[in-house]
Design goal:
Blueprint (H helix, E strand, L loop, with lengths): L3 H36 L1 H5 L8 H6 L1 H31 L8 H35 L10 H30 L1
Helix pairs in contact: 1-4, 4-5, 5-6
């Protein structure tokens, strides 16, 4: 018989898989769009769900490629982040949650969230500069300030887990 928490974890695993698959599809479609846009820009414009900045390609090839690289890197980082979340949820044991693997995985997720924020911040500044240079407004990359906030929360939770592990080890030594 599953407890309520075990059912919630099961649902979270499924949702994490769905998110990872969605981000993977987005990542692959962005790469396909970039490759196709070199030979047939109009066909790339028809790919659903991809960033449409082909007008930027007409202004400057280098601006277009660098912007698309930012978009692709952010997509890849998101896929890897969701992979880490899936790994964490599968390693989480409710009977003994305070393990070094869980603490390390939480810390790694916090670092990835922070890295996504940094890359999106740099990408946004680059796109803002391009928009001023070209004279067209492009809102391709947005800064997800929530990533910075969530990174801090996850990092704090990882440190709480690390402290819980230390307390658990001390209790085992005194017994």
């Amino acid at each position: 018989m599953q407890t309520k928490t075990e059912r919630i974890l099961w649902v979270l695993r499924i949702l994490a898989w769905i998110a990872m698959i969605g981000y993977t599809i987005n990542f692959v479609s962005q790469i396909i769009c970039l490759v196709i846009s070199f030979t047939n820009p109009e066909a790339a414009n028809q790919i659903p769900g991809v960033v449409n900045i082909l007008s930027l390609l007409q202004h400057n090839f280098r601006f277009y490629v660098i912007t698309m690289v930012f978009v692709i890197i952010l997509s890849a980082m998101s896929v890897y982040l969701w992979h880490q979340v899936i790994t964490l949820l599968s390693k989480l044991n409710l009977k003994s949650p305070f393990t070094i693997q869980v603490s390390q995985k939480l810390e790694k997720i916090a670092y990835w969230l922070f890295a996504i924020w940094v890359v999106s911040f740099i990408g946004k500044k680059y796109v803002d500069w391009i928009s001023q240079t070209v004279g067209e407004q492009h809102n391709i990359i947005t800064i997800g300030n929530e990533f910075l906030f969530i990174a801090g929360i996850v990092y704090i939770i990882s440190q709480i887990f690390r402290h819980g592990i230390e307390i658990q080890e001390e209790n085992q030594q005194t017994i």
